[in-house]
Specification:
Blueprint lengths: L1 H49 L3 H62 L1 H4 L1 H6 L4 H76 L1 H107 L4 H56 L9 H4 L11 E4 L2 E4 L7 E4 L2 E5 L4 E3 L4 E8 L5 E7 L2 E8 L9 E2 L4 E4 L8 E9 L2 E3 L8
Antiparallel strand pairs: 1-4, 2-3, 4-11, 5-10, 6-7, 6-9, 7-8, 8-11, 11-12
Organism: Chryseobacterium aquaeductus
GO molecular function: metalloendopeptidase activity
Keywords: Coiled coil, Hydrolase, Signal
């Protein structure tokens, strides 16, 4: 019984785990297939434009990697189904054995019933009783025996139903596996075709190696020339910013000096204005302290006199005169306590008035200082918010990143190493590059190939957008996040590629550490 229970629990736990894992794998595959469909759509749009482009090859490689992930997930799902079929078969074997035992036991019950003629002839069996009590016992026995037969028949029926369910579940799992195998074969065929496509593309690259390598080197030369221009512009921006900062600091220091003089003058006026009031409040407080002390001492004296009279009255028999004196002493003591409380309240009010005046004086002085600073145009620095948004900047355009930051080997020509000051993003035709952060356009630079580069200043940082066919901003223009800076141009290999860079001062940094893609 324990073994049977353990086996059933094992089957249940596996079914739950299998269901969850299978659902996860199916969801992953659905998402992967969406990505594949998007890449196919992008490739269809750029097939005639891209010719032999790195972006096209990158998309083919990405699609192939996604196909292989789908296939691997399908393999895992197939293994889960095979395990499920195996466990279903074990359950079917166990249920068959149980059903055989139930049928054997039931047939034995029927044989025993046939042999026992008295049980079959129920009326004779009951009437042959020796007494009424025995007849009742025989009726009860016949009922229990009938119930037992019904129970055994019901057990056989239920076991047969459960067996049929298990067989059906196994059949469904087997059908699911067959469908999976068909899909797997289709995936393998597609993967094989796409691998051939990739090989053909690489071979085409190699056939045109001299031409493409020459164009690439020419592009690198242009990039170096552009880098020189960018460095010159940034150096001039930094020099100008330093000069402006020094001038600003001097002007700010003079403003602060004059503001402090004005603030000190106003503070002195406030002190002089509040001095007489403060002295008057101090005198009131001291008088209140003296009065409170006098009242407290008087109340204490009266209380002590009352205590002594009460003790004397307790020792001697009270007379009418003593009682009168006792009442008068109690009244005098109460009056003294009341005067003491009133004096204490007056003292607290005097202290509170002094504290309020002191607080008001401090607030007036601070207000005077703030007003003086404002009047003289003294400002506080808000800091560089560009750096505070690292990792959260918007992408300048959405597409496939074909070239990453730093020294990177060419994906086909292994003897060529590219030095990138930013990233390159392959986009659809007609895509506009957008500013990633608010700033000021420092420069719009035309290149020898007719493309343009826009450089935007963000405090100590610069964002750069190269390989634009048109520019929609001009030098000195203020831009916000998402402002279009120009349309992305077609590169030498036929793809539409944006060269995007971020510089911290005169040093380029990896844009992928700054944008949220």
């Amino acid at each position: 019984m324990i073994k049977k229970f353990s086996f059933l629990v094992g089957i249940l736990l596996f079914s739950l785990h299998f269901g969850q894992k299978k659902e996860q794998l199916q969801q992953q595959n659905a998402e992967l297939k969406k990505q594949i469909a998007k890449i196919n759509a992008d490739l269809a749009k750029t097939r005639n434009e891209s010719k032999l482009s790195v972006s096209y090859l990158t998309s083919v490689n990405e699609k192939l990697a996604l196909r292989e992930k789908v296939y691997n997930n399908t393999q895992k799902e197939k293994r889960f189904i095979e395990d499920e079929i195996y466990l279903r078969q074990l359950e079917i074997n166990r249920q068959n054995r149980e059903l055989a035992v139930l049928r054997k036991n039931y047939s034995q019950v029927l044989v025993n019933a046939y042999k026992n003629k008295g049980v079959q002839n129920k009326v004779t069996f009951i009437l042959s009783s020796k007494g009424f009590g025995e007849a009742l016992r025989r009726v009860q026995y016949l009922k229990q025996y009938s119930d037992y037969q019904d129970k055994k028949a019901s057990e056989i029926t239920n076991a047969a139903v459960e067996l049929k369910k298990s067989v059906e579940k196994k059949r469904r799992s087997a059908a699911e596996k067959e469908n999976l195998l068909v899909n797997q074969q289709k995936d393998l065929t597609t993967i094989s075709a796409e691998r051939k496509q990739k090989e053909q593309l690489v071979n085409e690259f190699k056939k045109n190696e001299n031409k493409l390598a020459g164009e690439l080197k020419q592009k690198q030369t242009q990039s170096k020339a552009l880098e020189g221009q960018i460095r010159s512009i940034i150096a001039e921006e930094i020099r100008r910013a330093k000069a402006e900062e020094e001038s600003r600091k001097k002007a700010e220091a003079e403003k602060i000096r004059l503001a402090k003089i004005a603030a000190d003058r106003e503070k002195a006026r406030i002190d002089a204005e509040n001095k007489a009031r403060a002295e008057a409040l101090e005198r009131e407080r001291k008088l209140a302290e003296a009065e409170a002390k006098k009242a407290a001492d008087f109340a204490a004296k009266r209380a002590e006199e009352e205590r002594k009279r009460n003790e004397a009255a307790a020792k001697n028999e009270a007379t009418e005169r003593d009682e009168t004196r006792k009442i008068a002493a109690k009244k005098a003591s109460d009056e003294a306590a009341l005067r003491s409380r009133e004096a204490a309240t007056k003292l607290a009010a005097a202290k509170a008035a002094e504290a309020a005046l002191e607080k008001k004086t401090d607030a007036d002085k601070k207000a005077a200082e703030t007003k003086a600073m404002t009047n003289y145009g003294v400002s506080t620095s808000a800091g560089n918010s560009f750096a505070a948004n690292k990792g959260r900047l918007a992408m300048p355009a959405y597409g496939t990143i074909t070239h990453r930051f730093g020294r990177q080997p060419h994906p086909v020509f292994k003897n060529i190493v590219e030095e990138n000051n930013g990233i390159k993003i392959s986009v659809a035709k007609g895509t506009n590059a957008k500013a990633v952060f608010p700033g000021t356009v420092s420069s719009v630079m035309p290149a020898s190939d007719g493309t343009k580069t826009v450089l935007i200043k963000h405090g100590d940082y610069f964002s750069i957008y190269s390989n634009l066919s048109t520019n929609t901003v001009s030098k000195g223009q203020q831009v916000s996040v998402g402002t279009s800076v120009g349309m992305v141009a077609q590169d030498f290999d036929g793809s539409f590629t944006l060269d995007f860079q971020i510089w911290r001062g005169d040093t380029p940094v990896d844009p992928l550490g700054w944008v949220s893609n």
